């Protein structure tokens, strides 16, 4: 069993930065990809960024110039650094574990409960 726990969300102003963390316990991320998704009220869950076990990354077009995903395998933690936040980034952010890096949610078998990010204008 794998448990994922997100942290680092909060209420910020447009232009601010946040660093989200996703800590894994149990069988951890070893050998797996990690994806960050977000879901705004009334919208579907969408891919934000992903990283493979070896460190290859992929970003959604909407965030690729503003976000950096990274991982610390020794700490079983994946980070999402978000800069120049916009009101449209407001959502609940989830991390997830999957066999390979894909942008679709059903690729991922374990999910955290999410951390809320609210960006005021």
Strand fraction equals over 45%
In round numbers, the mean pLDDT is 95
Number of alpha- plus pi-helical segments: 0
Based on CA atoms alone, the radius of gyration comes out at 13 Å
The assigned structural class equals: mainly beta
Largest sheet: 7 strands, mixed
Distance between the termini: 40 Å
Shape: globular
Are there runs of 5+ residues with pLDDT below 50, and where?
none
Helix content: under 10%
H-E order = EEEEEEEEEEE
Per DSSP E runs of 2 or more residues, the count of β-strands stands at: 11
Give descriptors for this structure.
121 residues; mainly beta; seven-stranded mixed β-sheet; four-stranded antiparallel β-sheet; 11 strands; globular
How would you characterize this protein structure?
The protein has 121 residues and is an all-beta fold. Helix content is 0%, strand content 54%. The chain contains no helices and eleven strands. It has strands at residues 2-7, 10-13, 18-26, 33-39, 46-51, 57-59, 67-72, 77-82, 91-98, 108-111, 115-120. Strands 2, 4, 5, 6, 9, 10 and 11 form a seven-stranded mixed beta sheet that branches. β7 (67-72) and β8 form a beta hairpin. The chain is globular, with a radius of gyration of 13 Å. It starts with a strand and ends with a strand. The model has no long low-confidence stretch (mean pLDDT 95).
Task: Describe the structure concisely for a colleague.
This protein is an all-beta fold and 121 residues long. The chain is built from no helices and 11 strands.
């Amino acid at each position: 069993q794998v448990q994922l726990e997100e942290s680092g969300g909060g209420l910020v102003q447009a232009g601010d930065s946040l660093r989200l963390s996703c800590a894994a316990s149990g069988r951890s991320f070893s050998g797996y990809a990690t994806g960050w998704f977000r879901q705004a009220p009334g919208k579907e869950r969408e891919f934000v960024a992903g990283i493979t076990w070896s460190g290859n990354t992929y970003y959604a077009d909407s965030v690729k110039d503003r976000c950096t995903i990274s991982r610390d395998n020794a700490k079983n933690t994946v980070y999402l650094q978000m800069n120049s936040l916009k009101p449209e980034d407001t959502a609940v952010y989830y991390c997830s574990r999957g066999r390979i890096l894909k942008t679709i949610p059903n690729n991922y078998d374990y999910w955290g409960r999410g951390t809320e990010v609210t960006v005021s204008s």
